[in-house]
């Protein structure tokens, strides 16, 4: 059989299986039964993206079988073979969708099955920054559990998101690979068809971030090929079905690397039988470059360890968290005051704690010198301490400044991890990420109680306070430069964020100071200064300079942006916004919903549904994606009535911002504004919300009409 024949055979098998599954499901539930995946606005994503058709019921699904059939044309050429592969991909989606019919929850731990939209959105930033440099899909079975673990961990240590399909999941369990989204190892399911869940991840990325029009298959395939850095490892015996699914992956632009004998297709279907080289070959095939910094520590170091928790039972040493004093500080110093790579420990190390470990006070001071170093960069670099220590295997970091809380696990201690290794990590990573700012870095770690407390009062606190004063004084009026951020353009090609002191990027991760530092680090990088020039409209927030930049960088897609209003030419959204704000006409105000909230909102749409109409770099008056911290900014809806317009928020978001909401409420002259904001406990029915607002006398009700 030729490779093409194998693919066609696989696609036909898939089609037959699909027909019988759909028939069976209809028999059981009837044609009118609804079919959808949970927590997505794009159901069923593959069919919707490829054809523009939304599947609602089993009858629709039956209708889609014709589309699949039409994709299988058995001619001996690559194009037809790839189409047949796409047919198999669609089949996989149909079969998986049937598993969810009747409100069933077909997947059990550790398998995740369908991936909700919100997870994809949360991956936006790490994928564009290269923090997640790629997505591996490992299907099948490695020769041994050890081989499987080695491959998975190798990907994991490089920050690659690894998804698993088939028996490899059992091999990962057997070799105790830590799994879950936080470890970037995600078991999808045991059936080959569960691979659809990562395919639909890629496809929804195109819809969410790329603003690809459903039904535009050529653009969709172009997007996944150019912008989604995924690839497939097919391990163990290959059935015709797996080969044809592989052809589907190739059609999407994802190369397939296998350990089996097959006819190779240059760049796309590659044989690699040496398991030690599999990872390397795969990364090269997809053009993924990994930046590695070798850090001399006895434990692993990778972004994949960020989510790792050190629980009480696994803990050897603890610092801060209310139990001891602990703080951290990055400070700018003169070149003469910093000795590069000096790492000093003042006070006892953790091996003095005895066999059961214990707690110690802690101060971490990172001194940075360099001719481009500015005091403004101190908080930006200081916040990275959190990430860098967390990326260390067996080390957990929470908080910041003088509320830092660090735990070191028993296994890290047993592996030889000591406090100076924290210094090694910080030294290496600060230079690595801030190379053009930092010429010299030295780290001082103090555990001597008296000294920790003395320096907190004398050195750290005054520095924190000075910074806060500077931040408070940082307003849009007080600076002459804003920044544009284009990081998300690798996903959302038409999106441009405008970052100002009072409006951070909508991902919540890029403040004006961050943007400034990013520009300083790389003057041709994603953040570029906009010299403000003359303001055209101070209320709506309109500047000629901004419009010019946005028009240029969105390639003409957007020509006018007002940064202080939601009503007229609001800023575009890429898709990775922390919150969405949208008008609630009945209340003459707006609601805000955060990405983590899965429930319904008073607009009759969930976060995901609202997000699906707001992302992709388009302007949607009346709706806007934004960062959490923007809500309590003076510039939030500045032209539309400000914070007083906010009538509803999920409880969790409200709680998280409580102090700031109360404070900002007082500033706008409303003593108990916090209590006037409705949440899901008040209700998600517009009537219930309005009734509540009326009862508490919410200001929005008597403000100028929004329209
Ligand atoms: Fe993306 Fe905007 Fe955040 Fe930049 S600031 S990373 S463009 S969301
Ligand atoms: Ni960690
Ligand atoms: Ni984004």
Automatic annotation (TrEMBL):
Residues 20-101 form the Carbon monoxide dehydrogenase subunit alpha ,N-terminal domain. Gene3D superfamilies: 3.40.50.2030, Bifunctional carbon monoxide dehydrogenase/acetyl-coa synthase(codh/acs), Chain M, domain 3, Bifunctional carbon monoxide dehydrogenase/acetyl-coa synthase(codh/acs), Chain M, domain 5, Carbon monoxide dehydrogenase alpha subunit. Chain D, domain 4, Carbon monoxide dehydrogenase alpha subunit. Chain M, domain 1. Its EC number is 2.3.1.169. It comes from the Bacteria. Residues 464-707 form the CO dehydrogenase/acetyl-CoA synthase complex beta subunit C-terminal domain. Keywords: 4Fe-4S, Acyltransferase, Iron, Iron-sulfur, Metal-binding, Nickel, Transferase. One of its GO terms (biological process) is acetyl-CoA metabolic process. GO terms for molecular function: 4 iron, 4 sulfur cluster binding; anaerobic carbon-monoxide dehydrogenase activity; CO-methylating acetyl-CoA synthase activity; metal ion binding. The keyword Iron-sulfur applies. It is an enzyme of class 2 (transferase). Transmembrane segments: none annotated. This is CO-methylating acetyl-CoA synthase. It comes from Tepidanaerobacter acetatoxydans (strain DSM 21804 / JCM 16047 / Re1).
């Amino acid at each position: 059989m030729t490779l093409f024949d194998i693919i066609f055979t696989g696609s036909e098998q898939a089609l037959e299986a699909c027909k019988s599954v759909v028939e069976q499901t209809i028999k059981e539930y009837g044609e009118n039964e609804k079919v959808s995946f949970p927590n997505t606005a794009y159901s069923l994503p593959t069919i919707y993206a490829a054809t523009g058709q939304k599947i609602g019921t089993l009858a629709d699904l039956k209708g889609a079988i014709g589309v699949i059939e039409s994709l299988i044309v058995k001619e001996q050429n690559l194009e037809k073979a790839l189409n047949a592969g796409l047919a198999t991909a669609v089949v996989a989606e149909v079969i998986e969708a049937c598993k969810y019919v009747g409100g069933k929850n077909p997947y059990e731990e550790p398998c995740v099955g369908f991936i909700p939209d919100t997870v994809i959105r949360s991956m936006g930033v790490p994928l564009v920054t290269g923090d997640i440099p790629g997505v591996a899909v490992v299907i099948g079975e490695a020769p041994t559990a050890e081989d499987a673990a080695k491959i998975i961990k190798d990907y994991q240590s490089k920050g690659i998101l690894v998804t698993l399909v088939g028996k490899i999941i059992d091999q990962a369990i057997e070799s105790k690979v830590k799994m879950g989204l936080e470890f970037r190892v995600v078991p999808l399911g045991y059936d080959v068809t569960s691979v659809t869940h990562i395919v639909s991840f890629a496809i929804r990325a195109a819809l969410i971030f790329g603003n690809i029009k459903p039904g535009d298959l050529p653009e969709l395939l172009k997007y996944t090929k150019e912008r989604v850095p995924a690839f497939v490892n097919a391990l163990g015996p290959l059935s015709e079905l797996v080969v044809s699914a592989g052809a589907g992956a190739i059609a999407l632009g994802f190369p397939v690397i296998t350990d089996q004998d097959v006819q190779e297709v240059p760049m796309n279907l590659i044989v690699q039988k040496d398991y030690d080289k599999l990872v390397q070959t795969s990364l090269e095939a997809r053009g993924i470059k990994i930046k590695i910094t070798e850090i001399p520590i006895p434990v692993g170091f990778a972004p994949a360890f960020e989510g790792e928790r050190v629980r009480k039972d696994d803990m050897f040493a603890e610092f801060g968290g209310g139990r001891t004093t602990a703080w951290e500080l990055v400070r700018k110093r003169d070149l003469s005051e910093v000795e590069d790579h000096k790492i000093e420990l003042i006070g006892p190390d953790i091996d003095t704690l005895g066999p059961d470990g214990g707690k110690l006070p802690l101060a971490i001071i990172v001194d940075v010198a360099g001719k481009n170093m500015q005091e403004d960069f101190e908080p930006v670099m200081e916040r990275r301490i959190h990430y860098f220590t967390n990326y260390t295997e067996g080390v957990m970091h929470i908080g910041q400044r003088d509320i830092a809380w660090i735990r070191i696990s028993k296994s890290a201690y047993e592996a030889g991890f000591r406090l100076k290794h924290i210094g090694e990590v910080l030294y290496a990573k600060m230079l690595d990420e801030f190379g053009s700012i930092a010429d010299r870095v030295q780290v001082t770690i103090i555990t001597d109680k008296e000294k920790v407390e003395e320096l907190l009062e004398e050195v750290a606190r005054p520095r924190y306070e000075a910074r806060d004063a500077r931040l408070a004084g940082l307003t849009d009026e007080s600076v002459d430069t804003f920044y544009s951020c284009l990081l998300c353009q690798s996903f959302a090609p038409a999106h441009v964020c405008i970052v100002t002191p009072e409006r951070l990027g909508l991902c919540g991760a890029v403040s004006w100071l961050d943007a400034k530092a990013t520009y300083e680090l790389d003057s041709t990088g994603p953040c570029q200064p906009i010299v403000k020039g003359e303001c055209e409209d101070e209320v709506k927030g309109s500047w000629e300079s901004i419009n010019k930049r946005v028009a240029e960088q969105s390639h003409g897609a957007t020509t006018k942006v007002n940064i202080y209003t939601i009503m007229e030419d609001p800023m575009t959204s890429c898709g990775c916004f922390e919150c969405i704000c949208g008008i609630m006409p009945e209340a003459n105000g707006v609601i805000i919903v955060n990405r983590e909230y899965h429930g319904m909102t008073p607009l009759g749409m969930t976060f995901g549904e609202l997000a699906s109409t707001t992302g992709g770099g388009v302007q949607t008056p009346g709706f806007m994606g934004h960062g959490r911290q923007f809500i309590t900014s003076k510039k939030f809806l500045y032209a539309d009535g400000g914070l007083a317009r906010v009538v509803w928020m999920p409880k969790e978001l409200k709680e998280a911002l409580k102090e700031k909401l109360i404070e900002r409420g007082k500033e706008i002259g409303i003593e108990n504004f916090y209590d006037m904001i409705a949440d899901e406990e008040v209700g998600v029915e517009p009537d219930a919300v309005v009734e509540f607002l009326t009862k508490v006398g919410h200001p929005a009700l008597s403000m100028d009409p929004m329209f």
